[in-house]
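Work Package 3 (structural annotation) set out to generate three-dimensional models for the target panel prioritized at the project kickoff. During this period the team completed the workflow that converts sequence records into discrete structure tokens, so that structures can be stored uniformly alongside our sequence database. As a representative example, we reproduce one entry of 233 residues exactly as it appears in the project archive.
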Amino acid sequence: MTIVAVLVGRSDASLSLHQNYIDAVLAAGGTPLMVPTSFTEDDGRLERALGATDVLLLAGGGDIQPAIYGAEPATTLDQVDPLRDEVEMRALAWARNAQRRVLGICRGAQMLAVASGGTLVQDLPAAGFGPHVDVRHDRTYAGLRHVVKADPGSLAERVLGGLAEVNSQHHQAVCDVGAPLVVTAWSADGVVEALEGPNVLGVQWHPEVVWSQDRRHLRPFQWLVSGEAEWEQ
């Protein structure tokens, strides 16, 4: 039984996590354990909590504070939470030291890049990219779709399972990554859609929303839970 640490963001006075992440972990055979990003003290409690789990899931959410990757805010940012940023960085350090698999989705993929020394595109339209967020504010996160292309032989190609299109709901994206991560999938207009490294996978799309429509989208979660041997075919 693989216990999946699912880091949970905060919204006003509440914790915030879409049910879809939990459903996808359960469908992939994992047991989710929600860990709040509320550890204000670096006193080992976060690491002890994570020590009861086997792998780590970083979910979507608000924007990462640009200061973490050495930049000034260049646009209007949404739902920035410095404590969540700090806790997720510490969780990634724990996972790296413990050699645990990590899956990052949307914001989670961006955090993987930042933790490796990479940077982000703070606003895709301002940087000249096409729309990657549904202007109708489709909260299903499945209204906008676009083409995706992965490097042959990459983990990203394998988790796509032949899919040529993914959903999209984000106004920021990875600009570059630091070693040992590499970018392995892109949209047609060049936006980073996947990155990977030892025990690490980040995807910019939201497979947790659409796996029930096409079970190939469950593959990132199956990789997280059990590796490649038991993937859905």
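Helices lie at 19-27, 45-50, 82-98, 107-115, 155-160, 207-210, 219-226.
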